[in-house]
Recover the amino acids of this structure.
């Protein structure tokens, strides 16, 4: 059995080394050529690949007048098909870059998942998922991905330092006052 599996294990080792090499290459490229990606990687769950892809897809932080517009640029907003008085709840538009949307959704899975650190975005996403319903978790993930896209653009445009519990601290101060 070992003789049969040895070539496969060697191939896996080679593949792991190549993946590690390219991860290092992407991290180096992000750090050297696009230093603003360090602003984006402050958010837990956003790595160099996502930050670099986000940066290269948008190209210019001033491209959007408001950070809220970034969610619709990536197709993370619901489609609209209003007819008379009915406003059905539809799927997301998927209008933007598929790769960026996929990376943002993966980051959202980490943020809302069991290993995501405590943050305002995580609390908000968990509250959405707790509402229940057939697709509550899926909707919450997409909503967190949209909020993450807005947050990343805002961090990039303003150069601010990411505060995970910014809104929670603000609410506590308001209650104390």
């Amino acid at each position: 059995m070992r003789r049969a599996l040895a070539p496969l294990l060697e191939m896996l080792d080679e593949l792991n080394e190549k993946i590690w090499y390219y991860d290092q290459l992407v991290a180096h490229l992000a750090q050297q050529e696009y230093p603003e990606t360090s602003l984006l990687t402050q958010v837990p769950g956003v790595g160099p690949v996502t930050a670099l892809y986000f940066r290269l897809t948008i190209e210019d932080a001033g491209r959007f007048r408001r950070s809220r517009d970034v969610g619709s640029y990536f197709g993370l907003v619901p489609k609209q098909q209003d007819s008379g008085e009915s406003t059905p709840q539809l799927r997301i538009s998927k209008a933007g870059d598929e790769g960026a949307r996929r990376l943002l959704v993966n980051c959202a899975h980490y943020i809302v998942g069991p290993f995501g650190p405590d943050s305002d975005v995580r609390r908000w996403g968990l509250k959405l998922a707790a509402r229940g319903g057939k697709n509550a978790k899926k909707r919450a993930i997409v909503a967190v991905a949209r909020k993450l896209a807005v947050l990343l653009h805002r961090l990039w445009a303003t150069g601010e330092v990411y505060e995970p519990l910014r809104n929670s601290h603000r609410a506590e101060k308001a209650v104390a006052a």
Summary: The chain has two domains: 1-33, 36-176. The two ends are 70 Å apart (CA to CA). The longest helix spans residues 2-33. The chain has eight helices and no strands.
